[in-house]
Amino acid sequence: MEKRKLRNSELDRKSVDQFKEAEKTPIIVILDNVRSLNNIGSVFRTADAFLIQKIYLCGITAKPPHKDIQKTALGATETVSWEYVEDSLELVKKLKSEGVKVYSIEQAEGAIMLNDFQPENNKTCALVFGNEVKGVQQKVVSASDAVIEIPQLGSKHSLNISVSTGVVLWDLFSKMKLSKS
Predict the structure, then answer these.
(1) Calpha distance 22→10 (Å, rounded)
(2) By three-state DSSP, how is residue 84 classified?
(3) Phi, psi of 169, rounded to the nearest 5 degrees
(4) pLDDT (tens digit, 9 = 90+) per residue, 35-94?
(5) Strands of the sheet with 125-130, listed across from one edge
(6) pLDDT (tens digit per residue) in 137-155
(7) What angle do CA 140, 162, 136 make, to 5 degrees?
(8) Is 129 exposed, middle or buried (0-12, 13-18, 19+ CB in 10 A)?
(9) Which of 43, 125, 133, 161 is deepest in the core (most CB within 10 A)?
């Protein structure tokens, strides 16, 4: 078996216009008071990889254009649809009123382990990722339809927000898109 690395020209990358026209994965990402500009950029890049529908930047979460967001986003702020909303809780209420299921990614009583979670077919869901120190605000957790927890077996039980986003988006993408292939 050949193990030659692929060149960029062989990767079938979408142009910005092709990305915007492509069918999106029915997932919305909500960043609730995320401090790190590098984390924000990484989330954009991951959202681009999995054709995520939209990112909402809430509270203190910085907005593009910013050089530190751009450094890690590598242009994904131009492909992924995004919007700034001041209040995460109001956004959660609005999305729920539109029929979107909202899940906080957090460690909480009654949380569903990610490996046990099954997204509803053909239904948009919103995933709330929180502040690097405090996590998702309790009032947002309480307003969510459910809480999803990433199983962790080590001593820290703490993942960087950009890592958490990558783990959860890959898991849901694979359950939504790849299992239907």
Answers:
(1) 19
(2) strand
(3) -65, -40
(4) 999 999 999 999 999 999 999 999 999 999 999 999 999 999 999 999 999 999 999 999
(5) 82-85, 52-58, 25-32, 125-130, 101-105, 146-149, 112-113
(6) 999 999 999 999 999 999 9
(7) 15
(8) buried
(9) 43
